[in-house]
Input
Amino acid sequence: MIAHGAIAQILAGVSRRARVLIGGLAIVMLAAPLVLDRYLLSVLILVCLAAYTGQAWNILLGFAGLLSLGHALYLGLGAYVSAALYVHFGIGPWLGVFPAVAVCIVVAASLGWLAFRFRIEGVYFALLTIAFAEVARVGFDHIGFTGGAGGFFLPVRSEDQGQWWNLRGGPTFFYYLALLLAAAAFVLCAALRRSRVGHRWLAVREDPEAARALGIDINRARMSALVLSAAMTGIAGVFQAFYANNLFPSQIFDISRSIDIILAPIIGGVGTLFGPILGAFVLAPLGEVLISITGAIGLNAPGTKALFFGLFLMAIIAGVPSGLWPRLRELLRLRSASR
Amino acid sequence: MTFSLYLEVLVQGVLTGLVYGLMALGLSVIFGVVRVVNFAHGEFAVLAMYTTFVLFTVLHLDPIVAAIPIAALFFVMGWLLQRFVVQPFIHRPQHDQFILLVGLAIVLVNALLMIFGPDSRHTNLAYSYDSWFVGPIIVDKVRAYAAAAAVVVTAALFAFFRFTLVGTAIRACADNLTGAAVVGLDVKKLYALTFGLGLACAGAAGAIMVALTDVTPMLAPSFTLLAFTIVIIGGLGSMAGALLGGLLIGVAEALASIIVAPSMKSMVSFALLVAVLALRPQGLLGKPAT
Output
């Protein structure tokens, strides 16, 4: 009932046209596994996951105005904590997600404590997030309990297949799970955007001094955005661990992973609700197309895809800094209420 | 025995730290004047390392000699970069500038990865393994030369800012932008000049670094982070702070290599960073925020 109320409240200001579009998208996404093959479904899983993590990251920059370039930290922590609990203690991910999120919250809170206490803002905050992720990357290289630099592997046994309570399943299972995550994140962000705390975040983003003058505790507002964003990203980490079944500190904590997380919302539109989703839809297929094109013309050197993403990022920030979504919204003639 | 070992490592750290300091100086100068954070700083340093590597392989040019033409080349590159890429972003939000340079960093590092591959390249100098005995300790020749070169470039930069008219004008921009514009300084031109100088530092430091370490594209992000860490530890906008930070990090990394483990050395720099942020957020030589 509460969920129903929340959805009704979110839909309250949304135009008819937008409702039809959201509904259409939902139906297409729900029906996708019926028509898509394994490969396309795996691309769609990437889309959903990018939309989800993008939404989580967007809370921080888009709502509260804090740039994090180290979100891989929470992805990795969530992944490692849940995987270690599963492998070493047989605790399944549905239970393991709670300690995983708790660890992310503690780490994010200590980062926030350090940053906000001394008014470390803007670029310094971004640097601090990178530094934390780097410490984790180097640190996990030396933790023998989770395999160190050699990687940590989750057992993949055929008899475990279909154990949904251990997140063991086929692509369709993971697809619906990723879709659920993306949809839940969207609904959550839409609700937050209209909530008291959401308005506080926006006030702090637009003008911290004015927000403080209005009696908003800006450190508390920033801290809540950071912790929520970290917790959500940690859940994506749990998904990642059980989806990929292998974890390497040099991959999951790497700065390139943090960049992957921020690409979708930046391309789609920072601070918008549909931006991360649109960005994910543009980005993941673009990556796949790039791989096949560069492979076909024999340019499949490592780094090709990332190079193009880098150029794309520069082009977007130079040409359409507010992202693609605001443009598309105008094109579709949607009212701004559906932001 | 152990004392001389620690002394040796300490000297090594100081020598490496001087090269670090030069690299960080470039970042500090750009930030101090243009107020833009060059997130691609380490990437440019690694680009310089590869340029040096190619010059060495093809022309047998010594990396420390190569630092001069490379600094000139990177000065031009920095000028162009500021004029055509960064300048349109000067009045944009800080996040946008940052993301632009993150994009540039991704492009640079992956272009290097495509061209040279992920393997590390070693430059084998004739004097790579020579050393001097100074009292009880051994000093690597190559490290001493590298440090000396870094000191020369750094001193030249300090002299430029202190004694030339243009240098003074740039300092004026850093101190009071409106005032600088009011007295008729061409701020755009000075910005481009400063960015050029900053990249020249990164270029020279990169070239010199080839003598000390193997080069791989993966070095780039860690150099960027290293330069940032040094600048924050030393205090933003303080040139002397960047040098002090470089020395501190150099020594801390060298000591960490023998006390903990070589692969853990970056953690020591981050621990230092966190300690400085917690105890003295304005940096060791920075002015307290008002």
